[in-house]
From TrEMBL:
GO molecular function, one term: ATP binding
Protein name stated in the entry: Multidrug ABC transporter ATP-binding protein
Entry-linked Pfam families: ABC_tran
Family, similarity comment: Belongs to the ABC transporter superfamily.
Transport among keywords: yes
Organism this protein belongs to: Rhizobium chutanense
Keyword set, alphabetical order: ATP-binding, Nucleotide-binding, Transport
Domain ABC transporter: from-to ranges: 5-234
Cross-referenced InterPro entries: AAA+_ATPase, ABC_transporter-like_ATP-bd, ABC_transporter-like_CS, ABC_transporter_ATP-binding, P-loop_NTPase
Amino acid sequence: MAPIISVQNLTKTYANGFEALKGITLDVEKGEILALLGPNGAGKTTLISIICGIANPSGGQVLVAGHDVVKDFRATRGMIGLVPQELTTDQFETVFNTVSFSRGLHGKKANPAHIEKVLRALSLWDKKDNMLRQLSGGMKRRVLIAKALSHEPDILFLDEPTAGVDVTLRKDMWHVVQELRASGVTIILTTHYIEEAEEIADRVGVINGGQLLLVEDKAALMAKLGRKQLILDLAEPLERLPDCFAGNGLTLEADGSRLTYDFDADNEQESIAALLTRLGENNIHFKDLSTRQSSLEDIFVALVGAGK
């Protein structure tokens, strides 16, 4: 099956010479959740803007369901819902009217039943007659999602969807995203919250300096690039490691009172058992041990650092 979004060698250079995108190539499969991670200025919003038809590329091509986003703008824009970072809404309009108006802007006939369904799914139905200025920041962000869903899009872009909302509301919105994916909507989100990608994404892309450093299945990425560590708090500090331990992944830390050991998760029991035996043979004893696995944040920081 062809990808629902296909980006080929996409570039964007502004009039001042700044290269926001440098040859991005990316395929997004129907029904998946793709998280795009990257620091400020990495190119995430520029990429989304071009796919959504808000900005024009300098080079390359973007297809949405086989339609070119430049040549077939109307066809592609009608398939896409966008939740922008900025809260750009009429503060003196009601929630229901705001979302209904957004549906009309996409050329869709009025459908109060669908608007009600969307508002109920986002826990906004009891606020339907409230003006936007009466809502909290988190509720206003939900209204942005409702607007993006008003015309029943196949693809939903979420640009920093939970920025500035509290942890409880953030987790509620993660649940909404999962339900949307279950209904067949393809979702691409940009986020600064690593736990957001870790919680809900199927694949993770890392962008830095206008370049796509990688796109990988989340579990495969963590298995490939994540590290597992054994941490040993020593009973007696060491001045230095014996020469026989050189080059086997052991590091002496915390003024000689802690050993860390990077090991292969596939041979976890064998490698740890062998290490502990060798430590005992060298009269090195520990009072406590624990293990740690790299998080997606560790991997992201390492990738972005390597890409500088």
